[in-house]
Amino acid sequence: MKKTGSQIIVECLKKEGVDTLFNYPGGAVLPLFDELSSAPFHQVLVRHEQAAVHAADGYARASGKVGVVVVTSGPGATNTVTGIATAYMDSIPIVILTGQIPTSLIGNDAFQEADIVGITRPCTKHNYLVKELKDLSRILKEAFYIARSGRPGPVLVDLPKDILVDSAEFKYPEKVSIRGYRPTLEGHPGQIQRAIHLILKSKRPLLYVGGGVISSNASKELFHLSEKLGIPVTMTLMGLGGFPGNHPLSLGMLGMHGTYRANMAVMESDLLIAVGARFDDRVTGKLESFAPQARVIHIDIDPTSISKNVRVDLPIVGDCKRILSKILSLLEKEETPSFRGGLHKWHRQIESWKAIYDMNYQQEQIIKPQYVIEKMDELTGGEAILTTEVGQNQMWAAQYYKYLKPRTFLTSGGLGTMGYGLPAAIGAQVAFPNRLVIGISGDGSFQMNSQELATAVQYRLPIKVAILNNGYLGMVRQWQEFFYGKRYASSSLEGISPDFVKLAEAYGAVGLRATKPEEVVPVLKKAFSIPEPVVIDFVIDPEENVYPMVPAGEPLNQMRLV
Amino acid sequence: MRHVITLLVENEFGVLARIAGLFSGRGFNIECLSVAETLDPAVSTMTIVTRGDDQIIEQVLKQLNKLISIIKVVDLIDKDFVEREMILVKVLATEKTREEILRIVDIFRGKVIDVGAKTYTIEITGDEKKIDALLSLLKPLGIKELVRTGRVAMSRGSKAMTELT
Ligand SMILES: Cc1ncc(C[n+]2csc(CCOP(=O)(O)OP(=O)(O)O)c2C)c(N)n1
Ligand SMILES: [Mg+2]
Q1: How far apart are CA A243 and CA B71, in angstroms?
Q2: How many CB atoms lie within 10 A of CB A466?
Q3: What is the dihedral sign for C-alpha A124, A47, A144, A147?
Q4: Whole-angstrom Cα distance, residue A302 to residue A278?
Q5: What is the nearest CA distance from A533 to chain B, expressed in angstroms?
Q6: What is this model's ipTM?
Q7: Dihedral sign (CA B102, B105, B110, B112)
Q8: Does A298 contact chain B (CB < 8 Å)?
Q9: Of all atoms in ligand 1, which is nearest to the CA of residue A446?
């Protein structure tokens, strides 16, 4: 039977198992929306296309499914760019469908024309302009396959209006075959064997794990490996939740704002086992002095990540989950209890670092942001899904909440996009309507996508937005305090933020405020009990800083502790 | 070090932009690049000459491989290979220099393919060394214009690019 392009798209989305779309309509894409009006998807109308992509991203990170976005041509498409770049940097599977002017007009500077395929080429895993209707279903099949396989990422499909309207025979391709794209999944057996030798020979091994553990669903394997051998685990910002934060072998986060013991462990380790991590500069500090004593094993699905920044002794390209489980099964044959026993000294050393310095802050008469996060952790038992904005709020959320499970900490790591957290919380709540979703926010970042409160209210999404309100673009102020002689250029919001309680109310959400430490717990309890979107304005110490801090470009053991 | 990389790519719109964007976005250098269809019209072949230390070239090759429209990447520098470039060069030809130009062209087995009132246009094909040598001889005589195709290259022996590892 013949179908229009729009009908074909709906059929393809169904075949891909899509249940939710994040939408914003416009002229060029109206034929598709007309078809969507009767399609069986949960459809969320956001208030800005950037937020559509962040919401789809939050949905994807929380659920592990591909997030889907539908927007119009021109400004609708260009508004998605920051969202796409955010997802690209963090390897999040999203398919973005953009309307486009009719093929006959492309290149004419027609109304609402933008070369979105050209614009997003460097920030998508792949993108397509559908020029002929006969290619449509194949392209959509490929788009979903590329987005979710290998190292995941965003894929954009640009859909000219005539393609949406014209009719053709519909046949869904059962298989994908892209000759230029064959991700390696199984690690090289010889390399895996060599890795086991290196591990069993090591005295001070350290697992350094990143977002790849989350995206390949390898947490269970990681847990077993760490427990079986007694190897401590440190996580990148993207890796948080990949290993339980309350486990004795968890050293917490490493890097610029990492824990003292994690960074010291990197400096002293004799074997670094990197799993799904990419040696980002926020993690390594000064490259030449990163893990100076360690041999490095690097497990990653993306060959370009290997030996990009740091020389690697033993690369293993493939899917983290498969490789870790292969290592585990081969370890069955080895004498592991004695190895574990041999790590006693290493464990004691790590304990002693913890005794020297652990995350801490001085509680005073004014609310400390760390206290807010700590109380959240206590009240939720580490079971909530947290999203963050960017800046100090993001770092405190990373440091003071003990994430127990993967896909519970959603943050823009690679791009560091302010404005991510609120829409991502919306996406996560759409994926899990019955879970507690908390958006940790800053007074600056919140205002980058605060319009999305309307979306939360419209769909009755009971997200809890906790603004750590310090009156500053706090992380910028902290850098200016440390490195620019306290010259606070353009970083004070000068008390000119809106009244966030009233703002919430204006949107039809609930607004709460805490100004004293003793109000924090009651306000949190109250917020968690309200089955509606809530914004909490935590008026915190304006000049609190994030510690420890390794200044950019310094070795990891050069930490500022106070 | 100089590397000659040959690629098989999907012959679809935007592929060249993807590759050019990759090089410019990551700060890799392109000395020259040539593209044309293969016997299979769905596939094009590209030859890229680039420079970089081992680590950079490793990244270049991996990043090229990562592009979905690229079917195969081979760094010919690890192989025995032949390379050629064709150039067209318009040289000033005066009473005094005509003879000399013709002699040089003859030695290099080039051709004069167009004659103007005061110029010869010469076609010549060869590897980098030959072309450089020719140009250094013609330069003092006055080169008005130079157009080069960029390098094309192929491994020696009976294996096709698709069979190389
Ligand atoms: C879109 C965007 N613009 C600018 C920045 C640079 N930046 C990083 S943190 C920060 C301050 C964030 O302020 P706020 O949201 O109040 O968080 P705080 O650090 O105060 O917790 C800025 C401006 C960014 N990360 N993203
Ligand atoms: Mg702030």
Answers
A1: 37
A2: 29
A3: positive
A4: 9
A5: 41
A6: 0.91
A7: negative
A8: no
A9: 15
